[in-house]
Design brief:
It is a single chain. With 936 residues, the chain is an alpha/beta fold. The chain has 30 helices and 24 strands. Strands 3-9-10-8-7-4-6-5 form an eight-stranded mixed β-sheet. Strand 5 and strand 6 form a beta hairpin. The longest helix has 24 residues, at 182-205. It is globular. This is 2-oxoglutarate dehydrogenase E1 component DHKTD1, mitochondrial.
Length: 936
């Protein structure tokens, strides 16, 4: 709604019309692709001319009011123990602005908001100074402290001041703020009391259990309950919830309907998942639940999905964001046009105060919150601010733990956890902000817990009633509850817990990992799992995709350097020869899109490709308009999303991984600019990608593309630390042992066709596994590595082992096994020496699971081998040697060659992946290339 005088927009930069058009066109691609629609814009009425004149006339009063809005958070009563030292805030005294007479009357129209938006009233609103001061202190210096004046958005600042000062809402049709009727108060009491009973019960029955109880922080439960209720009433269907350990068990059993019998079964050492699945589970504080909750007045239940998380605090944040975005994609792809981003799905993230300040992934995740390919319509953050486990003086360099949120100008509401009704009010305001502006907002819930290392705090806690008891005392005084009512709530819940504990001996865990959208997927450890399906595609379809991938519309002006790219691709797909990696990738993507699957690839500059090879996104040189030819030309049911990301590794990879949990028909790819970039994302790889199936029964088709291979780039950019990826697998060691359900695949393809089949295999299999692809940085344009269309046509599939295509098997005396791009340097060296039949080079393209059977089949073709070797360009303590050596030896024993020693060829041990001195690198590389030919 618009009213009054509209002020001119501030001009931030001067650009030509062509520049503005280009920027808008490029942004439009990122903002509006793939069914994602911008949220509704909320246009708050500006000041009227009368109000502007009054603000100028009463400028001292205006300065005082704005100071109250800006600085009152430092004086608010937000510390439940009153231990935070607070200096007097001089800015909150009207005398500082020359306002000394309490009886003097001022017109507050346009300075203080006293009416609902849209209510009539342009005339004077006369208040004396005492009324003004008391009203502002009541609003801003209470149990909730507000930080919103740092926002650069005038609309958001006006929205907050209107809402808080008038206690009205931004538009007349909205429902009131939380009204504490008797039903609501009883609900809050029930949650608080049950939480205390639950913690006392666990302490009594399992005194040695590390349970991360909620004593002192019980208000977290009514906070979340209020948020879920508000969201449900507003039409939200799904909440994706991420949280750490504190209070998790209370939330699970109290609101999220997790069976106490299942919990007690787990505490006693039982499985939380069926034993016959072969998984190993996780600790108590990582349990999950996904109930559908019904709230009074809502037209439909709201499903709340608590995600599993590792012990690494805050690592789950971006995973939740990715799953939220992917769920919205599924809904919006087929929804009516009036369904906007964030209407149906909301991300809620819980944090601890010390970890929220201390963990870098928090900053990375917040940085994604408003980016085009990563926003999910705003997250609500609830910080359970214990504040005493790690004292603030040792935990942060800022006043509040929530100050990290100011990097994205997020508003912050600090609320005293001793006052659960104010907590519920704060959460209601937070949801309203998120729902209007579709941005992140933070609620800092200040609570406490006993800590013997803080004796003053411990003494103060011991001398006071608990949060539930304080609230019960309040409700008794208000005659909302009687002592009999209170005892009934507590006694009833304790009896229920006793009954659930008695059920433990007969409890049998169940699993729900293959329901809803996962119903067409099988568990990978079952006989039904298809491990290496045929992934080839008909020749005419491949040609169609190849031509579409470089189709340039009439009048669309591409960069002059790309004309050669277009010409070469058209020639290769027409002749069926010289297919490079980028073309093979486009063929894989396009074929998956035509089959109804979506492909999403993220990382820095993925549209162009780090090494200027992909060019899946074309930019018009005249106006910077963007097209994705595979989408525009194929017009398939599936879509290719090219998400150029921020310079983040941990949060971006976590985000893509979260998307993979939600959508089995999505091929999610994270491309590192260089192989070493994965280092920043190692936590996600360790705690999610490599272990989620074993811990939580979570399947994922996540693909990590990690450029790898020594090429003179120095210590870091040379290596994706292949050895770390292999060490993370649970690959079997011995040929004779039973094949196991490996946790992830690690590959090092040397041809475009192999890459093509790997990408398609991710979706063509009837189960999902994470995939690490090392390379192919040095092979992207290498003509010797090119494939043909025949290598990708119907009937073809990925080859875990590739035999030497040149060496005569009977004549070979030396057999060298290897992986990666150095193969092409070796065959070139062999040809130059005239030793084509003396040395055979066998490529192991899939390192995990190790291809025992396929390797044996290839080695059997060489009956006269005298020496078996493994060659790699990485130092001996790195690369694949540690992984393959024992496994190759196992194959040789199976072949009756148990006395044969596997010879290592390559660099010696090193603290670096590669030297930074060019001359030293060349010497080392030369020695590696010559090593297979010594003695011939």
């Amino acid at each position: 709604m618009k009213s009054g005088l509209a002020l001119p927009r501030r001009v931030l930069s001067v650009r030509s019309p062509k520049q503005r058009l280009g920027s808008a066109a490029c942004r439009a691609y990122h903002d509006e692709s793939f069914g994602f629609r911008k949220p509704r814009e909320y246009d708050f009425p500006d000041y009227t001319e009368v109000q502007l004149n009054n603000r100028a006339k009463n400028s001292p009063l205006l300065r005082y009011v704005d100071s109250m809005r800006t600085h009152s958070h430092r004086a608010a009563r937000i510390d439940p123990l009153d231990l935070i030292h607070r200096e007097e805030v001089a800015a909150l005294f009207p005398e500082r602005y020359g306002l000394n007479d309490d009886d003097k009357v001022y017109d507050v129209n346009g300075i203080i908001w006293t009416k609902r938006v849209g209510e009539a009233g342009e005339g004077e609103e006369l208040w004396n100074l005492k009324q003004i001061r008391e009203h502002l202190r009541k609003v801003y210096v209470g149990n909730i402290a507000y930080e919103f004046m740092h926002s650069p958005s005038k609309t958001e600042r006006l929205w907050f001041s209107h809402l808080l000062e008038s206690q009205s809402l931004p538009s007349p049709e909205d429902t009131p703020l939380v009204q504490m009727d008797i039903t609501k108060k009883k609900r809050i009491h029930e949650l608080l009391a049950r939480s205390e009973v639950f913690d006392n019960f666990l302490q009594l029955k399992f005194p040695n259990l590390k349970r991360y109880g909620l004593e002192g922080g019980e208000s977290m439960l009514p906070a979340l309950d209020s948020l879920f209720s508000a969201a449900s009433l507003a039409g939200v269907h799904h909440v994706i919830l991420a949280m750490p350990h504190r209070g998790r068990l209370n939330l699970l059993t109290d609101i999220l309907q997790y069976s106490p019998a299942a919990l007690f079964h787990k505490i006693k050492g039982g499985y939380e998942i069926p034993e016959d699945l072969g998984a190993e589970g996780d600790v108590l504080s990582h349990l999950v639940s996904s109930p559908s909750l019904s709230y009074p007045g809502a037209s439909h239940p709201i499903k709340v999905s608590l995600l599993p998380n590792p012990s690494h605090l805050e690592a789950v944040n971006s995973v939740a964001m990715g799953k939220t975005r992917a769920k919205q994609y599924s809904l919006l792809k087929t929804s009516p046009d009036d369904c906007k981003l964030g209407d149906k799905v909301m991300c809620v993230q819980l944090h601890g105060d010390a970890s929220f300040t201390g963990q870098g992934v928090v900053m990375e995740s917040l940085g994604l919150s408003n980016l085009p390919h990563f926003t999910s319509g705003g997250s609500v953050h609830l910080v359970v601010d214990i504040g005493y486990t790690t004292p603030a003086s040792n935990a942060r360099s800022s006043l509040y733990c929530s100050d990290i949120g100011k990097m994205i100008n997020a508003p912050v509401l600090h609320v005293n956890g001793d006052h659960p009704e104010d907590v519920a009010k704060a959460m209601d305001i937070a949801f309203r902000y998120r729902n209007y502006f579709r941005k992140d907002i933070i609620v800092d819930l200040l609570v406490y817990r006993r800590c013997i290392t803080s004796p003053l705090m411990y003494e103060k806690i011991a001398a006071r009633k608990s949060v539930p008891q304080l609230y019960e005392q309040k409700l008794v005084a208000e005659e909302v509850l009687t002592l009999e009512d209170i005892n009934a709530v507590r006694t009833s819940y304790k009896s229920q817990l006793e009954a659930e504990l008695a059920r433990v001996p007969t409890y049998v865990p169940s699993a729900s990992m293959l329901e809803e959208q996962w119903s067409g997927i099988v568990w990978p450890a079952t006989p039904e799992a298809q491990h290496n399906p045929v992934t080839g595609v008909e020749r005419d379809v491949l040609e169609k995709i190849g031509k579409a991938s470089v189709a340039v519309p009439e009048g669309f002006q591409i960069h002059p350097k790309l004309h050669r790219h277009v010409k070469n691709r058209l020639q290769s797909v027409t002749t069926g020869k010289g297919i490079d990696f980028a073309t093979a990738e486009a063929l894989a993507f396009g074929s998956l899109l035509l089959e109804g699957n979506d492909v999403r690839i993220s990382g820095q500059d993925v549209g162009r490709g780090t090494f200027s090879h992909r060019h899946a996104m074309l930019v018009n040189q005249q106006n910077e308009g963007v097209i994705v030819p595979l989408n525009d030309e194929l017009k398939a049911d599936g879509k290719l999303e090219l998400a150029n990301s921020s310079l983040s590794e941990m949060a971006v990879l976590g985000f893509e991984y979260g998307a993979s949990w939600e959508r089995p028909n999505l091929l999610p790819i994270w491309e590192a600019q260089f192989g070493d970039f994965f280092n920043g994302a190692q936590i996600i790889i360790d705690t999610f990608i490599s272990s989620s199936e074993t811990k939580w029964l979570k399947q994922s088709a996540m693909v990590l593309m990690l450029p790898h291979g020594l090429d003179g780039a120095g210590p870091e950019h040379s290596s994706s630390r292949l050895e770390r990826m292999l060490q993370l697998t649970n690959d079997r060691y011995d040929y004779n042992s039973e094949p196991n359900n490996i946790n992830m695949h690690v590959t090092f393809p040397t041809t475009p066709a192999q890459y093509f089949h790997l990408l398609r295999r991710q979706i063509c299999r009837n189960y999902r596994k994470p995939l690490v692809i090392a390379g192919p940085k040095g092979l992207l344009r290498l003509s010797a590595a090119a494939s043909t269309m025949e290598d990708m046509e119907s009937g073809t599939q990925f080859k875990p082992v590739i035999a030497d295509p040149v060496a005569h098997p009977v004549k070979v005396k030396k057999l060298v096994m290897l992986s990666g791009k150095i193969y092409y340097d070796l065959i070139k060296e062999r040809q130059a020496r005239g030793l084509d039949d003396s040395v055979a080079f066998i490529r192991i393209e899939e390192l995990a699971p190790f291809p025992f059977e396929q390797l044996e089949e290839v080695l059997e073709q060489y009956p006269n081998v005298e020496t078996y070797s493994w060659l790699q360009e990485e130092p001996r303590n790195q690369g694949a040697f540690a992984h393959v050596s024992g496994r190759i030896a196992s194959v040789l024993r199976k072949m009756g060659k148990g006395n044969e020693e596997l010879v290592y060829l390559g660099r010696k041990e090193s603290a670096l992946p590669a030297p930074g001195v060019g001359k030293l690198y060349q010497v080392q590389q030369r020695q590696v290339l010559e090593s297979p030919f010594v003695g011939l």
